[in-house]
């Protein structure tokens, strides 16, 4: 007993002095991508990426994004995963602290032999405070498990941030798609009106003997084609509203379709981008992958520590008496001592566990590098579009001007009898298609800005690794 008393303070002092960390030293790997992003001089900037509030120019869109951040079910799921990981980290962290428990009991016992006068009663009471199997983490097993749980928790935090960025992007893209389909619907409705006038003129010319019935049929077919386009885009607009309602996760304003417009642009026309590809390391999915790598690295330390003895400290102190009224008046008793468990043979289990931990670390490393490469690819693709889409839009605007003039001239030549209606139809198709292409290009530019915002991680990370 005396040796145990002497040994206990020594073990406590060793535990307080710290433990050996058997996990491999972690060094952030070099990013497997070029050091610079393919950014044009006009788009380059040393400033950080904008937050979503600075990306959005429309108050209506800003309101919908805020509504989605409150109601979207994917985001709620991500928040729940954080709560689970935080609780699991709390459980693991608790293993580093001693478990202190108190027990108490009061009993009354008696004997009898058939003679009531000879019966006897005995009272007893006991109170005890004890520490149960507190592991002295000399080889860092508990510390490594605690670190792995912490990094897993932080990974879920980054996962939630990634869901938020994806949600903002999804709402913005759904809004832009709705706005573009409304523009296409409006164009189809205008086409029905203008071609209806052309049909009326063609019928007048037919009644006057200037044109043939085939010209009337062509004009009528053009009107019906435009009406079919109106029906198609009306359905698309309704589908767009349904998609927007789903991603927001709540009821939308009654006039949401009327609020969605492409011009003026509801988002910024372009984003300034840092030249260095290091900015991609702050993307939440990249940070989440790195946190998982750190967790896997810590698990190697725990697997290595399993080869060494575990030393647990158990102690208790308490009082006992023959009654509750004098429980703490008499003498007490205490005990303290270590328990050592030394692994000798386990059929290769520890070796297999260490192999699993190392393979898991290699897998996490590959996934981390893959996330960086995917981030670079997404950013480079968005930048490639950003560098050419303005030229495309400028060319299409000039094309719309040309096809509009051509259509007016063709209609005038048909009215005076120089050309047949076939030339008018050809001019109408070209003008309609050029305007549709311009709407598509303006949509592509806006969607690409949102894609670039998402590819860059939606703003500086709050929890970036040092």
UniProtKB/TrEMBL annotation:
Top-level taxon of the source organism: Bacteria
N-terminal signal peptide: 1-17
The keyword Nucleotide-binding is annotated on this UniProt entry: no
Pfam (any one): OEP
One cellular-component annotation, GO: plasma membrane
Keyword presence, Lipoprotein: yes
UniProt GO molecular function: efflux transmembrane transporter activity
Bilayer topology annotation: Lipid-anchor
PROSITE patterns according to UniProt: PROKAR_LIPOPROTEIN
Record's subcellular location: Cell membrane
Keywords: Lipoprotein, Membrane, Palmitate, Signal, Transmembrane, Transmembrane beta strand
Family affiliation: Belongs to the outer membrane factor (OMF) (TC 1.B.17) family.
NCBIfam families attached to this UniProt entry: outer_NodT
The name this protein goes by in its record: NodT family RND efflux system outer membrane lipoprotein
């Amino acid at each position: 007993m005396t040796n145990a008393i002497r040994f206990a303070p020594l073990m406590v002092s060793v535990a307080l002095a710290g433990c050996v960390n058997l996990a491999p030293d972690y060094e952030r790997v070099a990013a497997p991508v070029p050091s610079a992003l393919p950014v044009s001089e006009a788009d380059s900037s040393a400033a950080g990426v904008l937050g979503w509030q600075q990306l959005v120019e429309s108050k209506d869109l800003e309101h919908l994004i805020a509504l989605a951040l409150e109601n979207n079910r994917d985001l709620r799921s991500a928040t729940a995963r954080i709560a689970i990981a935080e609780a699991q980290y709390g459980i693991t962290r608790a293993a580093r602290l001693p478990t202190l428990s108190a027990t108490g009991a009061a009993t009354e016992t008696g004997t009898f032999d058939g003679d009531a006068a000879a019966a006897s009663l005995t009272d007893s009471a006991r109170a005890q405070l004890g520490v149960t199997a507190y592991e002295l983490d000399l080889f860092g097993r508990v510390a490594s498990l605690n670190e792995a749980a912490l990094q897993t928790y932080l990974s879920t935090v980054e996962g939630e941030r990634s869901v938020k960025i994806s949600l903002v992007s999804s709402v913005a893209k759904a809004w832009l798609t709705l706005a573009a389909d409304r523009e296409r619907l409006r164009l189809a409705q205008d086409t029905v009106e203008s071609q209806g006038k052309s049909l009326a003129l063609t019928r007048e010319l037919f009644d006057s003997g200037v044109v043939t019935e085939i010209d009337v049929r062509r004009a009528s077919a053009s009107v019906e084609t435009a009406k079919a386009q109106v029906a198609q885009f009306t359905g698309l607009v309704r589908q767009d509203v349904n998609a927007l309602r789903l991603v927001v996760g709540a009821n939308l304003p009654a006039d949401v379709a009327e609020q969605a417009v492409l011009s003026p642009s509801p988002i910024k026309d372009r984003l300034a981008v840092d030249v260095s590809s290091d900015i991609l390391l702050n993307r939440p999915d990249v940070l989440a992958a790195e946190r998982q790598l750190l967790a896997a690295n810590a698990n190697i330390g725990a697997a290595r520590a399993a080869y060494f003895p575990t030393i647990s400290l158990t102690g208790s102190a308490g009082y006992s008496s023959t009654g509750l009224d004098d429980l703490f008046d008499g003498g007490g008793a205490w005990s303290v001592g270590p328990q050592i468990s030394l692994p000798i043979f386990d059929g290769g289990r520890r070796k297999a566990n260490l192999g699993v931990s190392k393979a898991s670390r290699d897998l996490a490393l590959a996934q981390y590098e893959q996330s960086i490469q995917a981030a670079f690819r997404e950013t480079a693709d968005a930048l490639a579009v950003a560098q050419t889409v303005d030229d495309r839009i400028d060319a299409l605007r000039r094309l719309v001007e040309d096809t509009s003039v051509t259509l007016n001239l063709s209609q005038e030549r048909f009215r005076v009898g120089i050309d047949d209606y076939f030339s008018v139809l050809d001019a109408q198709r070209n003008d309609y298609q050029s305007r549709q292409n311009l709407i598509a290009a303006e949509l592509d530019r806006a969607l690409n800005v949102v894609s670039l915002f998402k590819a860059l991680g939606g703003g500086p990370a709050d929890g970036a690794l040092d």
